[in-house]
What we know:
The protein has 11 helices and 16 strands. It has 2 domains: 185 residues, FAD/NAD(P)-binding domain; 140 residues, D-Amino Acid Oxidase, Chain A, domain 2 (2-Layer Sandwich), CATH 3.30.9.10.
Amino acid sequence: xxxxxxxxxxxxxxxxxxxxxxxxxxxxxxxxxxxxxxxxxxxxxxxxxxxxxxxxxxxxxxxxxxxxxxxxxxxxxxxxxxxxxxxxxxxxxxxxxxxxxxxxxxxxxxxxxxxxxxxxxxxxxxxxxxxxxxxxxxxxxxxxxxxxxxxxxxxxxxxxxxxxxxxxxxxxxxxxxxxxxxxxxxxxxxxxxxxxxxxxxxxxxxxxxxxxxxxxxxxxxxxxxxxxxxxxxxxxxxxxxxxxxxxxxxxxxxxxxxxxxxxxxxxxxxxxxxxxxxxxxxxxxxxxxxxxxxxxxxxxxxxxxxxxxxxxxxxxxxxxxxxxxxxxxxxxxxxxxxxxxxxxxxxxxxxxxxxxxxxxxxxxxxxxxxxxx
Length: 373
């Protein structure tokens, strides 16, 4: 390459939570790091279809400013359409992903990563020991590539990585409904998020949700993609439920967006100096669909694997080290949850049993202690 400033140690593709954390950790460890984002982030971030509920532990861990939190949550209400109701207590937060992602991207830039916006990649090629990435605007070279560009990852598609099985994909529909804070407080509660279940009469493998923000209700629905016959009609069945109908009365739709979520791992997570993190690797809770903390940890572990293997001169062990770090923290649990998910959504009896246990235990505890057996 003629332009030495276009040569990097690590290129991270995608400025979501996984990509931004990877870029942040890489820059902090002295790697010349490029963070490529296909969209314009701007001053206010870019919209992402996501409920935005996250655990309070994550808020504290990254020191996320409370003035950027849309709502502090104290309970999760679990509704079954048959009438059964379960309540899970615990502190959490609901955030706008645009604000949250921008916060993490800014941290990466402040640590020394170079951010390039509106740089969707056109081509990625292996050249000897490096990768050449051609974007809409330029050409870049790097030793390592971290693919954090979502479930449909153009990066991994260009590299001919295998895609997810249909059983491991959830199609979601998200609507952002503008309303009044006082109305949300009255109907949904000032500190409560709501999930809705029902295999026979609502969603065969998935759930729907109402997540309150300051003056907006994020309305979501998600079902296993190969089981969907008519997504709009199935979504309408949810919004026609009496409680949901009341909650959305006098609200105005501002955004409507479908989105895919993986609920099972991609067949491989590493190959030849390329790492899949977050949704690109299917590193998501198969039961709850929670992905933000797993994306962030996988981004961090990708860089830690590089650092460890370079230090030990064991670059041939990069993939093993990456999966070892993932497994030590959560990969084994996610695999067990994927197996358990089939049993939980086998029938409404199993689902209600799980929801009853979820009131008292973390989902990982239910699965690893085999409380469903």
